[in-house]
Amino acid sequence: MAREEPVVIVRYDPAWPDLFQELGSGLRTLLGPVARRIDHVGSTAVPGLDAKPVIDVQVSVDALQPEHPYLQPLTAHGYRWNSDNPDRSKRFFREPEGAPRAHLHVRTVGSFDEQLNLLFRDYLRTHSDSAAEYARTKWTLAETFRNDREGYVRAKEPTVWELLRRAHDWAQETGWSAGPTDL
Questions:
Q1: What's 101's DSSP letter?
Q2: Is the per-residue pLDDT at 1 higher than 80?
Q3: Torsion of CA 160, 165, 45, 70, to 10 degrees
Q4: Dihedrals φ, ψ of 11, to 5°?
Q5: d(Cα 65, Cα 63) in Å, to the nearest integer?
Q6: Which of 8, 46, 50, 168, by CA, is between 20 and 30 Å from 126?
Q7: How confident is the model at residue 159, as a pLDDT?
């Protein structure tokens, strides 16, 4: 069994949006209309938020099944599919060998999980106090769970759920909607 990489949080890198643009543009060319949306999600999508240095890209498709409309082009270009991913609401891919670190999350357009990731990103983008709270939690837990990625994820859950509760309230107050795709 391969050893997991340690959990490492780094200061926000202003190059992350450009890395997303490069990755996303390549995916747009590769997938064409199969990709209904391509969005920068996760902590690297929030200006100023410290994060693990991995770009999270969410690709929204009409349906996860059949898989061939997105699976074939992605794997043909070196994206590594984690077919054992236990989260059945998405398909998960890692970047091609030698490419910038990226996780590709393929979800169904309009699905709960797709919308939740966009809401969380947009909430943190507009609430710097909550983003700072999240960053403090990640730094503390990365120290405690440096060599235990699952423990790190589990320990973050109370903070993430509290932030999602606030994001839900904010969405209700503002009439939030996902808005246009990033690419």
A1: P
A2: no
A3: 90
A4: -60, 150
A5: 5
A6: 8
A7: 98
* Contact yes or no for 116/34 (Cβ under 8 A): no
Which tokens belong to 52?
Answer: 């693990």
Closest Cα partner for 94 from 64, 65, 126, 54? 54
Q: Which two tokens stand for residue 20?
A: 């997303």
Token duo for residue 74: 């992605």
- Each residue's pLDDT tens digit, 85-130: 999 999 999 999 999 999 999 999 999 999 999 999 999 999 999 9
SS in 3 state form for 15-41? CHHHHHHHHHHHHHHHHHHHCCEEEEE
**Which of 85, 120, 6 has the alpha carbon at shortest distance from 53?**
6
Six token digits for residue 175 = 């009439």
Q: What is the pLDDT of residues 129-166, one digit of tens each?
A: 999 999 999 999 999 999 999 999 999 999 999 999 99
Structural domains present in the chain = 16-174 (3.30.460.10)
Work out whether strand 102-108 and strand 55-61 pair parallel, antiparallel, or are unpaired: parallel
